[in-house]
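Hey team,

Filing this mostly as a record. A colleague (T.K.) asked me to run one chain through the structure pipeline before their review meeting, and I want the input and output archived in the tracker in case anyone asks later how it was produced. No errors, nothing strange. Just documentation.

Input sequence:
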Amino acid sequence: FIELMVEKDGARTLRCFSISSSPAYYDSSGLIELSIRIQQKGRITPWIRQQLTLGSLVNISAAQGDFVLPEELLYSQQPEKVLFIAGGSGITPFRSMLQQQVMTQHMMNRLTAKHLTTKQMSSELDIHLLYYSRNDQQVVFKQELEQLQQDYPGLTITFVDSEKDGFICAQHLQNYCSDFIQRNAFICGPSPMIQQTRKVLAELEVAVDKVHFEFFGAAPIELANVELKGGELANSEQAIVHFQASAKTVLSDKDKISTLLEQAEEQGLSPVSGCRIGVCHQCICKKKSGVVFNTRTQQYSDTSSE
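Output structure:
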């Protein structure tokens, strides 16, 4: 993803958006494509669609994030098997990865075998994409994905209509991709879908180190699975949060786990925020005391200020 900064009504605003095009596409065209879901009640995404025109100036960051294909898969001496599992707009990073594979393969096909290095020749992957959507009208990039499947012999795509066929389960994997146990699995989509997919793969005894995922939004808070320093298990008992600038104190609800940003907003506060998932650093503040849990790193802070 990249951070996109725009100026609206004299104020600069930062938002994070996924890159849906590949490095190879940038090399050939000089363009970067972003996939932006319009939030109808949002302050920025509707404005972007209405106000940004050809020639508008924006600021962007360098590419960030770690949901990429590992080099050990791309440059393996043996053809690697990969399973992409996408839910809804979680198709975005997979579109980039697939585009990269197809464009790289086309480039290689234009070269003679004697000019190819071992590293270059091993870049073709055996990829199976399972793409879940609410219904067959909600499939993003469908025609393009079908064209990629025609252009890339190693790609198989299965479109799954969740409205008709239900959500991911063991039976789906066995029916649609029977060799799933041999594949490295990459998952991207809504948090509940990722959680369910991880559970299914674990029950089918897919090795943990072969499961890669990215939450398309805020990571769910699973305090029961986190250990404090020294091996002590975390718990979800009530905690007191004091917002110093406003002098407001909140008693957290042990049955409703929420972020510090959400708790501030529930108290009528309006802290500056952007991505809401902890990557743009718009809502950063200094902790005076206490212990907080970072949903991105899955770690607790210590008791010092940070």
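Quick notes for T.K.: Residues 118-122, 223-234 have pLDDT under 50 and may be disordered. The radius of gyration is 22 Å.
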